[in-house]
Design a protein that fits this description.
Order of helices and strands: HEEEEEEEEEEEEEEE
Distance between the termini: 42 Å
Largest sheet: 8 strands, antiparallel, barrel
Number of helices: 1
CATH architecture: Beta Barrel
CATH topology: Porin
CATH class: Mainly Beta
Structural class: mainly beta
Shape: elongated
Number of strands: 15
Oligomer: single chain
Length: about 220
């Protein structure tokens, strides 16, 4: 719980901080995103899974999925001055897996492509917040065991879920901009040990991203 609350506080601070970076020369025209524009963003995303990720049978052991930071990129196409469709991609994230009383028992990697419909506010402003909602597909792979489970095979099934986001674009000039964003993603995976279902791992992470963007 403490980890989650701390992350949310940092995420809120991150969303507000870029306002101080708006250049004095960033006029309304320099940030006037309009229909037909493409927005490219690249940077880092920090993924913070919720503090309690479920219990695995038969011993009802609590499972904990560790946090991870990796480079990501997004591309958004603006259908209108306000509505855009965004695709999030990135290199694989790696998460350590721990079980109550057993410590670190392995790790997994995942790819989380996410497609979101966005609504952008403040058309023509240098300070342009947006909200988004969409669907996430998470592919788990290279799940490796160690320690107490070193002689076992652990598998995490792929996941489909809802993704929500809030972000802000800050214009630097006619094309370049800064971006910060927060997302919540519904990720739930069925865990299997040696082929047998042992429970559901609820990752359900909050993510925080800092990016540099280019409009064309």
């Amino acid at each position: 719980m403490r980890r989650t609350l701390t992350f949310r506080a940092l995420a809120l601070a991150g969303l507000l901080a870029p306002a101080a970076l708006i250049p004095a020369h960033a006029t309304a025209s320099s940030a006037d995103v309009s229909a037909g524009d493409w927005l490219l963003r690249g940077g880092l995303i920090y993924i913070s899974p919720k503090s309690d990720n479920g219990e695995l049978t038969p011993a009802d052991l609590s499972v904990d999925v560790g946090s991870s930071t990796r480079p990501t990129g997004t591309v958004t196409y603006m259908f209108t001055d306000n509505l855009g469709l965004e695709l999030l991609v990135g290199i694989p994230f790696k998460h350590d897996i721990a079980l109550e009383g057993l410590g670190n028992v392995g790790y997994t990697r995942h790819l989380p492509p996410t497609l979101s419909l966005q609504y952008h506010f403040n058309t023509g402003s240098a300070f342009r917040p947006y909200l988004g909602a969409g669907v996430n597909y998470t592919h788990f792979f290279d799940t490796t065991t160690r320690g107490a489970l070193s002689d076992s095979r652990l598998r995490l099934d792929d996941s489909w879920g809802v993704a929500l986001q809030a972000g802000i674009d800050i214009a630097l000039d006619d094309n370049w901009f800064l971006n910060t964003e927060v997302r919540w993603i519904d990720i739930e995976s069925t865990a299997r040990l040696n082929g047998q279902r042992i429970g559901t791992v609820e990752v359900d992470p909050w993510t925080f991203g800092m990016n540099v963007g280019y409009r064309f």
